[in-house]
Design goal:
- With about 200 residues, the chain is α/β, with parallel strands linked by helices.
- The chain has one domain (about 1-195): Uracil-DNA glycosylase-like domain (Uracil-DNA Glycosylase, subunit E, 3-Layer(aba) Sandwich).
- The chain is about 50% helix and about 15% strand.
- Helix 1 packs antiparallel against helix 5 (about 105-120).
- The radius of gyration is 16 Å and the shape is globular.
- Bound molecules: uracil.
- Uracil (URA) binds near residues 50 and 52.
Amino acid sequence: MENVEVDFDKNFDELENRIKSCTLCGLHETRTQAVPGAGDCHAKILFVGEGPGKQEDLKGIPFVGAAGNFLNELLESINLRREDIYITNIVKCRPPSNRDPKEDEMEICLPYLREQFKLMRPTLICTLGRFAAKKLIDPNIFISRDHGKLYRKKGQVFCALYHPAAALYNGSLKDVLKNDFMLLKEFLEKVRAVH
Ligand code: URA
């Protein structure tokens, strides 16, 4: 009898290794290391940010800087830990000086994210910030108008959230994010993705 679980883990490891050695776009020339993602690859909730920053590039783990600390707080507020979710980014390598990722860099990197979706088949994908929301949900989305709403696209449920870093610059967004996380909790309880 085939062991689906072992195959899944092997496929996910293989994908992460391909990301770590990727040289498909110019970002590999300036990165310290690629950041495939972290957390539980069996999780039903997937968070997608923009791209690794300085700390992430050094450690090889997404959201470990100040924005990551706030994200951890938001997760804790709905009784989730980093180990209960999987988190990754649109581009897996740090854009130099934290500049915005370029269109061609995102397009070249997106197939990795699509493979992650296909293997994980998450119940909910939460985009963090406008780059991820525009790329994954709708190019015409506006976070200020559309945050916290649920979208169904090609059978997959998405929720657009402000980037936690935005709340570090604009304190009033902290409560907005906290409220949106409460909505996520309600949704996840409804579909029994968390207990
Ligand atoms: N911001 C992101 O979008 N991703 C990270 O991994 C860290 C900061």
